[in-house]
Structures are given as C-alpha cells and as structure tokens.
Amino acid sequence: MQRYTLTEYADASSETRAVFDDFMRTTGATAVPVWLKSLGHSAPLTRAYWERAKGTLFAGNLPLPLKEMIVFVVSARNGARYCSACHAQNVLSLDKTLAFDDLRDLVSADKGFKLPAYYSAVVDFAGKVAADANCLEDADFEALMDEGFSREEICEIIAVIDMATMFNVYTSSLRLDLDPDYRAIL
After folding, report:
1. How many separate helices (H) and strands (E) can be counted in the chain?
2. How many domains does the chain have?
3. Which residue from 96, 103, 113, 175 has the highest number of Cβ atoms inside 10 Å of its Cβ?
C-alpha cells in the first residue's frame, strides 16, 4: 500500500513551491527529494520540516560533513532506510576520503573498518544517545570535550541526533521510496 502522495513542483501551491525553491537553493540540488514532496500537500508542514532541517544542518558551529555523518549513523541504527541512504549519499559527496563500502562496513559493525578520528568520538556518542538518551553519563560528555568539543557544540550534536530521529520516524512510517540517486545501505 502506498502510504503517501507526492506533490510535484508544478502542482505545488506557491507557498510550497517557495519551500522547494529554498531547499534547492540552500542545498544546490536540482530536484526536490521524495521526503519534501511527500510533505508538499501542506505548505506549513513542508516549511516546518525544511526549516528544522535547514536550521539544524546548515547553521551552527559544527561542520556539515560531521552533521551528515551523525544523521547517517543515527538513521542506520534506527533502521531508517530512506534517511540512511540519503545521508550516506550526502556524507560521500562531502567527504571524499570515504567510500560507500566504508559506510556499509560501519553499519554492519565490520571490525576491519575504522572511522577517521574526526568522526569516531561523535559517532560513538550519537549511537549511545540514539540507543537510550537516559543512559548518558558525565564521562560521555567528557570524552567529547577531551576531543575538543565545547558544551555548546555537544548540544548541537544532540540537536542533530534529535532531528535525525524525527525524520527517521517520518520516513520509516511512510516507507518512503528512495530518490533515484540514493543507494540503499540497509
């Protein structure tokens, strides 16, 4: 059963089209992705989801590749097929030192793959938060601070994890089909 409808650009209201345009301008995309088109029937909902993503991913102090890796890891651990594919693609386009097989190995917990130090502590933290945010201890925060992250940046990391979880619930509940340029990792 198809659980959603897509609003194509040409059929969208002017308010929804404005959000679509802002998405493409901000991300450099040439097409509107399935997740955004699935919200297109409601301009306020489309705007709310896009503003949440834009504010979390494109603002703040943390670099975009790190944020994309966080979303990828959280999505993979949550079994969110759409989000893990989307953000795997984004990570690979932003970090040319990684390959698709590296991300697949990371998801499968292949012990032969070691993340670059740049990602490692944050990925461990994100996995712990995604599994059970109530189990965090001061040592988890101290480990990130030892890697040079400020308390404010740690709050930003948590905000990215929270946003990822929200999108995981949305895309997984609807079983969104992958965009043509996404490659399934789960």
Report:
1. 9, 0
2. 2
3. 103
